[in-house]
Every structure is written in C-alpha cells, then in structure tokens.
Amino acid sequence: MKTRVFFFIVATFCSFTLMAQSSASFIKKAQQQHGRNEYKEAFESLRNAESALYGEERAGGKKMPEVRYNITKERIQMYIKLRNSKRAKEQLERLEEQTKTIENDSISNDLLYTQANVYYTFGESTKGDACINKLIEKYKAAKQYDEIDKCYQTIIGIARRAGNASFMARTYEKYMLWHDSVQALKAQDNLDALQQKYDESLQTITEKDDKLSSKQYIIIALCVLLLILAAALVIGAIVLLRFIVLSRKQKKIIQTAKEHNELKTKFIQNISSQMGPTLNSLPQDLAEVKALHSFADHIQEMSELESTIDEPFEMENKNILTFCEGVMAKIADKTAPDVTCSVNAPKLSAPINAEHLERVILHLLENAAKYTPEGGKIILDFKKRGAHTHQFIVTDTGCGIAEEQRENLFKPFAQVKELTQGDGLGLPICALIATKMNGSLSLDSSYTKGTRFVLELHV
Predict the structure, then answer these.
(1) In sequence order, which residues have a C-beta less than 8 Å from that of residue 209 and are 6 or more positions away?
(2) Of 69, 333, 360, 400, which has the fewest beta carbons less than 10 angstroms from its beta carbon?
(3) Domain boundary at 197, 223, 248, which?
(4) CB of 450 within 8 A of CB of 372?
C-alpha cells in the first residue's frame, strides 16, 4: 500500500514538473537531441512536449494548433532521417489534418515544403514535383521571386541529402531555367509597373486637363455674365438718366402748366369782373344777356374749382332719406305732366357735404326733368357699395344721350352752340365738385331705356 502511494506521488510530481516546462522548450530540446542522433531521447522529448501542450491548452482554455504542427513536423524530420517511410507518411497525413485548422499562408507553404521533402526522400518524385510546382505558382502569383529561388535551393539540398544525383541534376537544370526566365519576368514586371505609372500619369493629366477646361468654361461664362451685367448697368444708367431728364422736363411742364392755369384763372376772373358792369348796363330781360350772365358765372366757378381741386370739401353726417326727398321736391314743378318722381333711400346717416352734393344731384335731376316726356319716370337711388363707399344714382326714361356726345360729356367747351341753349359747362362743373368730395361722376352706358348718372363717393 505504501509503495503504491509512493509511486502515485512520484507520478503526480513528474506531471506537475512537465506542466511547469513549456511545450516550446521540449520541442527545442528534441531538435537538439535529433541533431546529435539521440532519437530515443528526442521522441521522448516530443511526447513530453505534447503532455505540456495539453496542460497549457487546459489552463488557457483554447487550442494551440501551431504548436502541435511543429511537434508533428519535427517527428517527420526524424522519420525522414531514419528512412522510415511508413511512419513519415503517417505523420504527414496527421500534419495535413492539423494544417486545415490553421488559416495561415506561411504554414500552408511550409506544409508543401514538408510534403515535397517526404516525397522526394522516398522516391516519389512526381508527387514531390506537384507540391513544389504548386508552391512555385503561389510565389509566382505573388511575384515573390526570391522565395522561388529559395524553393529551388531547398529542393537541391533535399536531393543532395538523399544522395540522388539524377534528381539533383534535374532540379538544378530546372533552377537554371527558372533563373534565366526570372529576369524576363522581372523585366516584364518593371515594364508593367512603368506602364501602370504611365497610365496613372496620363489619367492625372487628363483629369487636370478636364478640370482646366471646365475652369476655362467657367471663366468664359463669368466673363460673359460680367459683360451682360456691365451692359445692363450701362443700359440702366442710360434709362435712369433719361428718366431723370424726363422727370425734370415733366416737372417743368407741370410747373409751367400750373403757372399757366393760375394765369388763366386770373385772366378769366379779370374778364368776368370786367364783363359784370357791362352786362349790368344792358337790359336784363333779354335772353342773350341772361345767357352771358350764366356763362360768366360758370366760367368763374369752374376756375375756382380747378384752382382748389386739391382742397376737399368738409363733410358732416346727414339723414340720407330726408336729404334725397328734399332735393327731389325742388324739381316737382319742372317735370312734364304725369312724370313719376321717386326716391329709394334708407333712413340712415352718412357723411356728406350737403350744399355741393345738392348742387350736383339737382343739376342731374333738372336735366332728367328737361328730357323726360309725359308719363315717364325719374328715380333717385342711394346704395351702399362698401363700408366707406356709397352711390347716388339718378335715372330717367327720357330720350337718352347720343353715342357721339358721350365721350366729351364731362369736358368743358367741347360743344359749340348758342349760349341761349346752354353753355355745356354744367356737367364738367359737377364732375369737378365730385372730385373735391373724393368721388367721381360717370354715365352708366349699359342703361339703354333713358339716361343714368352715377355719383360715387368715398368717405
């Protein structure tokens, strides 16, 4: 019993001792023993390396396939040296399986070297050539020509160690062919590199040329735009100067017209004042004298209205219905028999100038009474057209106004006729009064059953 416990303690101590040493140190030790041809000790060291590796993997919690690869590879090298083909190939299969779990180009290349070494050593030159050719193609694709050179030197070394003169000669011949062809490959690579640089330079030049062309187009476009702007500024300056000149001319014309109008007003007033004593000295019952008196009064009034056109009349609130009925009553004795006079106005107050508004509406009603035949109608309407706009509308069923007279209806001195038949200044004076009340007087041309005047005021 004591003996078993003793051996268990010794075994446990040995296992802890093996774990204390790393697998790498055992592999290095095996390589040294292999170099001294101590194969038994070397194989033992590799077994110890596997045991240590197992402990390291358990302690670290992850596999270490690269280390296992190195252990297997070292065994293959020893079996090659011992000329043990069977064992060497068994370990080679194991090495191939281990390589599958390692994603490393360096390990893959090393596997091809090891496979070639095994195949060449044991006389399987075809398989060895396949491995080497595969390795050379990989290096050639990567353009690692120095590695290909090392590859051939390694094969020559394998042939030398194997003592196979024909194999070494054949390999050396391939090496020399490769050595000669590699110069052409390097030259081609250099040429390709130069061609690539040339293409890149040409592409750069093309891009710069395109950029330069686009910049030139932009500069040309900006220049054209600048010229257009300059031309626009010149034209604008000319137009502005012409506008200033015309404005000055118009100002001067307006000023001259105003001065002339003032002089005309003074002249008319002077003539009217001189006509008064002369007319008073004549028989007042003559129709011509009465017409001249009326004409002089109208001229005087129109002159005063024109000179004060910018001075509006004062307004005050009046009852519209009462006002309209009062004006309509003043023409009751001036109408033809059976003429109906009516007022349509609401009972509301509105701001008006009663004196001057009555003057305009009364003139329109008197004209309506003059031209409306027996049985006709004369109507005075009041209508609101908005919060600050209202209309007084005088409508009759008389003969109406001829088309050729409508255009000059509100223009003074447009009609030439005997003064005893009227001077034609009544409507122009009414239009001026409407303007001073912030309104307008117009003829409703759409009404065809007589005459309709519309006086619109804005309050």
Answers:
(1) none
(2) 333
(3) 197
(4) yes
Query: pTM for the complete prediction?
Result: 0.43
Residue 72 lies in a domain: yes
For the domain that residue 40 is a member of, what is the CATH number? Answer: 1.25.40.10
φ and ψ at residue 342, rounded to 5 degrees? -135, 155
Tell me the three state secondary structure of residue 254.
helix
Q: Are residues 176 and 325 in the same domain?
A: no
What value does the mean pLDDT of the chain take?
79
Higher pLDDT, 326 or 117: 326
Return the C-alpha torsion angle 224, 229, 233, 235, nearest 10. 60
Are 165 and 20 members of one domain?
yes
Q: Does residue 300 fall inside a structural domain?
A: no
Instruction: From 158, 175, 197, give the residue that closes a domain.
Output: 197
Residues in Cβ contact with 226 at an 8 Å cutoff, skipping those fewer than 6 apart: none
Distance CA(342)–CA(13), nearest Å, equals 141
Instruction: Indicate whether 101 belongs to any domain.
Output: yes
Phi, psi of 349 (to 5 degrees): -100, 145
pLDDT at 454: 95
Distance, CA of 268 to CA of 264 (rounded, Å): 6
Structure confidence at residue 441 (pLDDT): 92
Are residues 330 and 193 part of one domain?
no
What's the domain count of the chain? 2
- One-letter amino acid at 176 equals M
**Residue 273 binned pLDDT confidence (cut-offs 50, 70, 90):** low
Residue type, 453: F
Single-letter residue type at 152? Y
How confident is the model over 100-146, as pLDDT tens digits? Answer: 888 788 888 888 888 888 888 888 888 888 888 888 888 878 877 77
Domain span holding position 170? 16-197
- Max CA pair span of the chain: 181
Q: Residue 6: inside a domain, yes or no?
A: no
Q: Decide if 151 contacts 117 (C-beta within 8 A).
A: no
Give buried/exposed letters for 111-128 (b at 16+ CB in 10 A, else e): bbbbbbbbbbbbebbeeb
In a shared domain, residues 41 and 167: yes
User: 338: which DSSP letter?
Assistant: T
